[in-house]
Write a structure and sequence with these properties.
Helix content: 40-55%
CATH topology: Heat Shock Protein 90
CATH architecture: 2-Layer Sandwich
Strand content: 15-25%
Strand order of the largest sheet: 2-4-5-7-6
Number of helices: 6
CATH class: Alpha Beta
Number of domains: 1
Length: 211
């Protein structure tokens, strides 16, 4: 039997940090570029374009950091629960800023933080599965706190490669780097939450189930 891929705590922390930095560096750099334009430009139209760039980039950076705070961060003390309404809001903002769409069906309750972190990481993987855009359907079923998650990413070219699915489902996914840390981390959270993940790949769809 093939052993699951595993890395140490220090490597995990370093790779998650690299992933978060990767996600926010572009909008932060765009803000810097916009400020430089304001310093150099006197034309009113160009200054307004610079301000528009700053506004959009600041929102994108904020949305990505708010999402990362819940998906990767502690979000409270040990044993804390997270309101699914907060999770839905950050998920909607995150998906929208990447120009995908999201549908969400589930109760407005609190769940143990690891279950919510798993849900949000599955949403992020739904985004990864849609390189050409599309819709992400989220369904939360069951009687809280005993719930199950179903995330379906629908769109042209929807896919997750074997490397990603192997790491997500706790199998041998090969090497782990800043680009593949998301599914590995999600798999770790799934194990901690007692919610194993399965993946079903269909034409134009990727379905992930946990619980």
């Amino acid at each position: 039997m093939t052993e699951p891929t595993a890395i140490g705590a220090l490597d995990l922390a370093a790779l998650v940090s690299s992933r978060i930095c990767h996600d926010v560096i572009n909008p932060v750099s765009a803000i810097t570029n916009g400020l430089e334009m304001l310093d150099e430009e006197q034309d009113a139209a160009m200054r307004e374009a610079a301000m528009d760039l700053i506004r959009k980039s600041a929102r994108q950076a904020t949305v990505r950091l708010q999402f990362a705070r819940l998906a990767f961060g502690a979000a409270g003390s040990a044993g804390a629960e997270i309101d699914l309404r907060d999770a839905e809001k950050v998920a909607r903002d995150f998906v929208q800023v990447i120009k995908h769409t999201l549908t969400w069906q589930g109760p407005a309750v609190t769940l143990p933080k690891n279950k919510v972190k798993l849900l949000l990481n599955m949403v992020a993987l739904g985004v990864i599965a849609l390189p050409r855009g599309g819709n992400i359907d989220v369904e939360i079923s069951g009687n809280p706190p005993d719930v199950a998650f179903t995330i379906v990413a629908k769109g042209q070219g929807a896919k997750l490669n074997e490397h990603v699915t192997g790491l997500l489902t706790g199998g041998d996914g090969g090497d782990i780097n800043p680009h593949s840390i998301q599914p590995y981390y999600a798999g770790c959270v799934a194990s901690a939450a007692g919610m194993p993940v399965s993946v079903d790949l269909r034409d134009g769809e990727v379905e992930m189930r946990a619980g």
